[in-house]
Amino acid sequence: MRRVQFEIVLGTILVFLSTAIIIYLGFKEENRLEEYKAEQVAEQIEFGAAVFEANCTRCHGSRAQGIAGLAPCLRCEELFTTRLDDVGWEGDLQSYIISVVSVGRQVSTRPQLYVGGGTPAMPTWSEKYNGPLRDDQIRAVAAYIMNFEPYALGEVPTPEPLFGLVDESDPLSRGRAYMAQYGCTGCHAISGFSQGDVGPVLDGIATRAETRIEGYTAEEYIHESIIKPYAYIVEGYQSGVDEAGNPISAMPNTFSEEIPEDQLNDIIAFLMTLTEE
Amino acid sequence: MLNSIRQRLNIPPREEWRDRINEMIDTRVRAIMAGLSLKELRAIARGDPPTERPNPRYKVHTSSFWAHIRPRYYLEGMTWFTHTFRLGWFTMFFFALEVITGLILMVYYIPHPDQAYQSILEIESNVFFGKLFRDAHRLGAEAMLIFTVLHMLRTYFTGSYKAGRSFTWLTGVILLGITAWLSFSGYLLPWDQLAYWAVTVGTSITESGPVVGPAVNILMRGGVDIAANGLLRFYLQHVVLFPLLAIVFISVHYYKVSREHGISLPAKVEENALPEEEIKEANRRIDLIPDLLSHELFLVALGIFIVIFLVGFNFYGAPLETHANPQATPLDTKAPWYFWWLQGMLKIDPATILENLLARIGVNVQLGEILNSKFIMGLIIPPILVFILVAIPYIDRNPNRMARKRPFAIVWGVAWVFVLIALSYMGLPQFGIETPAATRIIQDLAPEEGLGELRAIPFEELQQGIYTVGEIAAGDDLCGRDFSYYPKDDANLVVGCPHLNSVFFEYQERLLKAEEEGALPGMSAVMVVEDWQPDVKKVTLSIDWLEGQEEKNYEKHYFLHQDRPRSE
């Protein structure tokens, strides 16, 4: 066979093969598209979880369980059932979450539940309004929160959290974990640990606490500050006055009911390690 | 009566109809086919000799634009496969592939940072054959560059740039630059981490230039950082400016080859180093129509088949990393492979080398300020290299083309190939950059980008637990021997957690080894798997160690969804 003839035969076969591959792939393409869609949604949820972990846990809790007095639970039934009616949102939940995260909230819709009467409430997150997050990150966070639905509605039983990196035998390590759990870190900054900027910085608190109120040891002062924040208010952190004219602290006064005594002691033990250099 | 109507309407008798219709068809065919008749086309397809005189197959070259850019004939020696390997031809083939696939991708792509990445996701998951086109476009881009370089090397080693071909060589060097820039400008468009950082690093080279350097950098980036303006500039370069430049220079380059000097004859033919018989054969004319044309059609069929095969069966896929994030520099930044040599060069610090050399002869100077490595290696050396490349036909005055008569040029060429390979190797992120042990170990198991072993663990095996390094004996099963599951799309029962085990034991082994070697003294580490959402697990890798008296910690969290891809 001459080269030209060979090439014509082989070329024709190749054209048929290419066509056959395209037809074969064409039949599978719809499935592939769906598979890719599912994978992209999965990766978006993973990404949202990471963004949530880095930005939202300080106020909404490490597992979006919310922190009393600070920020609401995002894995609870209420968000998935009655919330939209309560606020009068016409769209779906996902768009509601995206909107709230993007613009934030200047005033809480439930001021009685939160620190300082709910002002300021949620910060602004979208880059468009000078926040730190891109729109795709916010969409991913919304997808992640939406993915709590089966837990929230009780379709899947919520598993007991595994307290991962806390050394249970060490009170300091426990104290640190409780600080995060009860949301202390949402408002107070401790170098290397938290960045909150609502309440006073806690670096060196163990040294300063001794000098605050005469006759109080540092432990006693810290203890009182947590359970009765109105008793002594550091200058600049008063949020107003109550009906009787007594000053109110910006810090919620609900911790006496929320934090059991043994956990409170662990928190104090941890704070006592924050001495001035 | 019928006849009278015929006469009145001037309708010819029935016998003439056939001839008239044939003539009409023939006229139309000739008009479209630039003078080739139906009969002639049939003869071409059958491989028969021309049906008319003068040969209508040559006339096409003056009457048709598309045929006029093609040669009338090549000599047989020019078409020997082992002489050209069809490298230039395939470069052009891939350019055409890029234009076609690129036009389709342009329909769906949005050149704005807010939407670019999303539009790529849409192309892959919402456009019928979208991924096929994206993969083919990316494959074509890399192939075009490879073939350009190979074509250039072939031209160099066969001495085909000599004797009246120096201008063609110059246009070839320009085309190399255009091709590389087409590829690089396309790199930014997906707006993922890979794109963003490769282009940020690439454009930053210009910043170190004298006087106008910072201005050029801002001009290219469209601002201090690459953002909406920068993306738009790169997009327009990629889809308008450089394709047009490429078409202009390809035309010039090809016209010279096809109409002026032809493809070079093999050196042994040109310099009569073959028996007379073979020389005579090599000088035989091969016409474009039909011989070369049929061969080219075959190559088109072959090329398309290879592309469809590689892309369709996932032997090649275009990568897509996570969304570009100007705040997070990836751990292992990597330029596209065709710029590894440049990245390798940038790692050479001429100031230090010179300081050391001068110190040997007793001169102690600090040159770091003056001899900035980015400036020297990124802005001074590459233009010199380009200049040498352009000047090759003028430097090399040796008229001989046979390899053994120009040993110096051959050695010089081979040496450069090795230098580029060595520089490319130096450009790899593994070379000359030290990553802290804890970071390296975690990065290897679960890289910032791409899959890695950790993310490939099947969802079923991610059993909640705290697995402490040093407490689990090799050979134990993390999930216990009682645990078993059926993987998706597989009927074979898996007992225990082989994938989870393999990741944990690698983690444990490398950490213990690092502790032994002194990289992580007083190391303690865990791997924690937590149930996070009904279809999401959280995996935490955390390493503590001591640096002097100070406690150090490196910790990473991974969220793994049931439906995530678990293979690449």
Written description of the protein model:
The complex is a heterodimer of chains A (277) and B (568). Chain A has 13 helices and four strands. Chain A is mainly alpha-helical and 277 residues long. In chain A, α8 crosses α13 and α10 crosses α11. Chain A is elongated and about 110 Å long. Chain B has 568 residues and is an alpha+beta fold. Chain B has helices at 2-8, 14-32, 38-46, 56-63, 65-68, 81-84, 87-108, 116-126, 130-157, 166-188, 193-207, 213-221, 228-261, 267-270, 276-282, 288-312, 340-346, 350-360, 373-395, 407-427, 437-445, 452-455, 498-516, and strands at 73-75, 285-287, 465-468, 484-485, 494-495, 524-533, 536-547, 550-561. Chain B has a four-stranded antiparallel beta sheet with strand order 3-6-7-8, covered by helices on one side. In chain B, strands 1-2 form a two-stranded antiparallel ribbon. In chain B, α9 packs across α16. At the A-B interface, α1 and α6 of A face α8, α16, β6, β7 and β8 of B.
Salient structural properties:
A: 277 residues, two-stranded antiparallel sheet, 13 helices, 51% helix, 4% strand, B: 568 residues, two-stranded antiparallel ribbon, 8 strands
State the strand order across the main sheet of chain B: 3-6-7-8
What characterizes the major β-sheet of chain A?
Answer: 2 strands, antiparallel
**Beta-strand content estimate of chain A:** under 5%
Strand fraction of chain B: 5-15%
Series of H and E elements of chain A: HHHHHHHHHEEHHEEHH
